[in-house]
Write a structure and sequence with these properties.
By secondary structure, the protein is mainly alpha-helical. Helix content is 46%, strand content 10%. The longest helix has 55 residues.
C-alpha cells in the first residue's frame, strides 16, 4: 500500500515538472520572439536615421567641403561594423553629463551611440560644423522659455540640422514640424513662405512646444516622446502601462518608432559631449556663419540682392531657407527678415533702392498691357510680329560658368549655347547672355482702307467785323493723303546675325539680300549695320 502511494506521488511530481518545462519553453520562445521584434524595430529606426544623415551630405556647401583634398571629412571613415564599447565606461561618461533629462544606458542607447560616434563619423563631423552656427542662438531661445538647452540635440535626430529637410509625411524644416503643429505655434505657411524652414522662428516654436509637453507629462523622456508621436499617443501608452509616469516604464506601450526615439536622443547627446574621444572634429563649412538681419518692407527677390551686391545666391538661400521661391513677399508694406553676412549689411542699406529696382519687371508678375508694344517686326507674309515682353538677359560675373548660369535659369548648357549662338564654353566678365525669350503675338498684316470721307459742313457762324452780316463757311472736301505700303523694311544687324538667318526671318535668301544691298559677299555685314529688306 505504501509503495503504491509513493509511486503515485512520484508520477505527479514528474507530471508537474513536465508541465513547468513546457511552460518555460513557451516563455523562452515568446521572449526570444519579442527580442527579435525589438531588434527589427531598432534596425528600421536606425536605417531611417542613416538616410537623414546621408541626405545632409548632399547639401551643396557640404559637397564643396568633401571635394577638398585636405578636408577634415576626407580623414574620417564611417565604420559600418559593430563597435564593442566598454559598457561600464560609457555608463560612467553618461552619468557625468549635467542635464535635467533622465539618462539611462541599455542596448537601445548603445546602438545609437555606435551610430553617431562610430558608424557615421562624417555626418557627425558635419553636424558639429553646423552646430557652431545654429546651437549658440538656439540655446538662448530655449533658455528664454526655461527649457533645458540640451534638448536642441533633438534636431540631430529630426533633420541632421538640415533646414530644408522634408519627411515622407510632410514634416518640414530643422525641427520637422507638421503643418498643423506649425500653424498652432504661429508659423506662417503659404505660397511664398514656410516658417517651418526658418531656423529662428521654428526654434522659438519648438521651445514653446517642449515647454507645453513637459507641463503635461512632467517627465522629459515622455515630453520628448510626445514630440515624436503626439501627446495623445503618450497618454494612451501611460494608461496601458497601468499609470507609470517615466519613459522606460511606458516605453513598451509606445508606438514602435517612438520606443527608439528617446534612446536615439541619448546617443546624439553622448556624441555631442564626447565626440573628441572618437577623433571627430567639426567640419569647416563654406557658408557664412557671422550673420545679421535687416527687415524688408517691399517685395524683393534674392537674385536681385545677389546680382547687385555680387553675392552668391546659394549663400543667400542657405541663410534664408524659408522663402520657397526666393521671393521675400513684403507686399503692402508687410515686413519680413533678410539675413545677410554681417559685413554686407551696411552696403545693402546703401544699395537698397537700387536693388529693389533692379530688373523688377523680370522678377515679379506685374500686370502686362498686351497693347503696349515692346518691339515689332514683320514676317514674309506681311504679318506684324509684336513682342509684348522683353527678353531676359544675364550679365556674366567673375567665376561663373555656363553650367552654373544654365542651372540658375532652368536651362541645359546646350540650350543656353544655342540661344546665344555660342560655339565654345568660354565666357568673359560682363558678357550678356539671353536666358529667356520674351513673349510675342502675331497680328494680321495692316489693311489700308479706302477713303470714304464726305464733305464736312462747318456749322460754326463767323461774324464779319465790318458788317452785321453773318458769313457761313463754305463746304469743303478735305484732301486725304494717299497711303502706300513701303517697298522695303530696314533691319539693324545684331550680334550673331548672318545674312542667312536674317533672310529666313523675311523669306529671302542670303544671295537676294546681298544683291539688294550691294554687298560684296554674304559675310560682309557688321553689328549695327542697316540692311534694306525688300517686301
Amino acid at each position: 500500500m505504501i509503495k503504491k502511494v509513493w509511486l503515485l506521488l512520484l508520477l505527479n511530481v514528474l507530471f508537474l515538472c513536465n508541465i513547468n518545462a513546457q511552460s518555460n519553453v513557451v516563455k523562452d520562445t515568446a521572449k526570444n520572439e519579442e527580442t527579435t521584434q525589438v531588434s527589427k524595430d531598432l534596425e528600421i529606426f536606425t536605417n531611417k536615421e542613416v538616410k537623414i544623415m546621408d541626405s545632409l551630405l548632399n547639401v551643396w556647401y557640404i559637397q564643396n567641403e568633401l571635394a577638398k583634398k585636405n578636408s577634415i571629412l576626407s580623414t574620417l571613415k564611417d565604420d559600418t561594423t559593430a563597435y564593442d564599447n566598454n559598457d561600464s565606461l560609457i555608463f560612467n561618461r553618461l552619468s557625468k553629463i549635467v542635464t535635467e533629462v533622465p539618462l539611462a544606458y541599455n542596448n537601445r542607447v548603445k546602438r545609437f551611440i555606435e551610430l553617431y560616434s562610430v558608424q557615421r563619423q562624417r555626418s557627425s563631423s558635419v553636424i558639429l560644423g553646423l552646430a557652431q552656427y545654429y546651437y549658440p542662438w538656439m540655446k538662448q531661445i530655449f533658455d528664454k522659455y526655461d527649457v533645458p538647452e540640451e534638448i536642441i540635440y533633438i534636431t540631430i535626430i529630426e533633420s541632421a540640422l538640415n533646414p530644408i529637410a522634408v519627411s515622407p509625411a510632410g514634416a518640414t524644416g530643422i525641427w520637422q514640424f507638421m503643418y498643423g503643429t506649425g500653424k498652432l505655434y504661429g508659423l506662417e505657411v503659404n505660397t511664398y513662405v514656410d516658417d517651418r524652414r526658418d531656423p529662428y522662428k521654428a526654434t522659438d516654436a519648438a521651445a514653446r512646444h517642449f515647454r507645453d509637453l513637459y507641463n503635461i507629462f512632467n517627465d522629459w523622456g515622455l515630453a520628448i516622446s510626445a514630440y515624436n508621436c503626439g501627446a495623445g499617443n503618450v497618454r494612451k501608452a501611460i494608461q496601458r502601462s497601468g499609470g507609470k509616469t517615466d519613459f522606460w516604464g511606458v516605453c513598451p506601450y509606445l508606438p514602435k518608432e517612438t520606443q527608439n526615439y528617446f534612446p536615439a536622443y541619448i546617443g546624439a547627446l553622448y556624441m555631442m559631449n564626447y565626440h573628441n574621444l572618437y577623433g571627430i572634429t567639426p567640419a569647416p563649412l563654406t557658408f557664412p556663419t557671422n550673420v545679421d538681419t535687416v527687415m524688408i518692407d517691399k517685395e524683393l527677390h534674392l537674385a536681385q540682392v545677389a546680382e547687385v551686391m555680387g553675392l552668391d545666391l546659394k549663400d543667400l538661400t542657405t541663410l534664408n531657407p524659408q522663402y520657397k521661391r526666393n521671393i521675400i513677399p513684403a507686399f503692402n508694406g508687410k515686413q519680413y527678415p533678410l539675413r545677410l553676412p554681417a559685413n554686407e549689411v551696411v552696403r545693402f542699406i546703401a544699395l537698397k533702392d537700387t536693388i529693389q529696382k533692379y530688373h523688377y519687371d523680370e522678377y515679379f508678375n506685374v500686370t502686362k498691357d498686351l497693347n503696349k508694344v515692346v518691339a515689332t517686326d514683320t514676317n514674309s507674309n506681311g504679318e506684324v510680329i509684336v513682342q509684348t515682353t522683353p527678353n531676359k538677359y544675364h550679365t556674366v560675373r567673375k567665376g561663373e560658368t555656363l553650367g552654373r548660369i544654365a542651372s540658375k535659369y532652368g536651362l541645359t548648357v546646350s540650350k543656353l549655347k544655342s540661344m546665344n549662338r555660342l560655339h565654345s564654353n568660354y565666357l568673359r566678365v560682363g558678357q550678356r547672355l539671353l536666358v529667356k525669350k520674351g513673349t510675342t503675338i502675331t497680328k494680321p498684316a495692316p489693311v489700308v482702307a479706302k477713303d470714304t470721307t464726305k464733305t464736312v459742313k462747318d456749322s460754326i457762324p463767323v461774324t464779319n467785323p465790318d458788317t452785321t452780316q453773318v458769313v457761313v463757311k463754305k463746304e469743303t472736301t478735305p484732301t486725304t493723303p494717299k497711303t502706300s505700303t513701303p517697298k522695303e523694311t530696314i533691319y539693324i544687324v545684331k550680334k550673331g546675325d548672318t545674312l542667312s538667318s536674317i533672310g529666313r526671318k523675311y523669306g529671302k535668301t542670303a544671295q537676294q539680300l546681298a544683291k539688294y544691298n550691294n554687298l560684296r559677299n554674304e559675310n560682309s555685314i557688321q553689328v549695327g549695320q542697316k540692311l534694306k529688306i525688300p517686301r
